[in-house]
Amino acid sequence: MPADFTPAVETLLRTIHAQGDGGASFAWETGGYYRLTGTDYRVARRSFFPLTGDGYVEENHDDSAPVKLTRKGRKWIDHHPVPRGGSRGPYRPRGRRSARQTPAPRPARIAYAGGFTAEIAERVVVITCPDNGVDGVTLPADGWEQRAIDRHATLQNVEGPVVSGAYALHWREDSRTDADLLVQSLAIVQAEPARLVEAVTINVES
Fold this sequence. Notes:
About 25% of the residues lie in helices and about 20% in strands. With about 210 residues, the protein is of the alpha+beta class.
């Protein structure tokens, strides 16, 4: 029994084993390669020689017949667990990424302009006013919320300010991109004359 196979030969042996007792069906392709039926796995014809020549797989001289492990081949598999990471493990077809591997959604876009901070998520732009947490919060002039709603048909509601000195602008049925809505929201708030209010006096408006 050889101490080790080449990575290609070992992958082939483990792939055949992974197909179960029915064996692995391969189809001949040009260029000296076989393809595992129903997969993208291709293996060179020469990779079979160490396995058939030394009795690790059955030699049936029929390219259309499934390739099966012999008792010797199963014994080798039993004595050689797949290394950590599976670098020489059986072929695994590529599939959709699992939930764990799916890239996390991109964070909400954030913009800074004139001391205001803005971020957007699900068509709601949250504007945090300047100087929050210092000596007070610089807020827009009174009544700007209704004026903004009256001027912009797709601006459905404005919530705030809350203790953090932030407003939430709810946009609906607007064809503009998130980036455009973010810029528009900043422009609306910055266009209003500012008023300085002590942070402790800001209440949540229903």
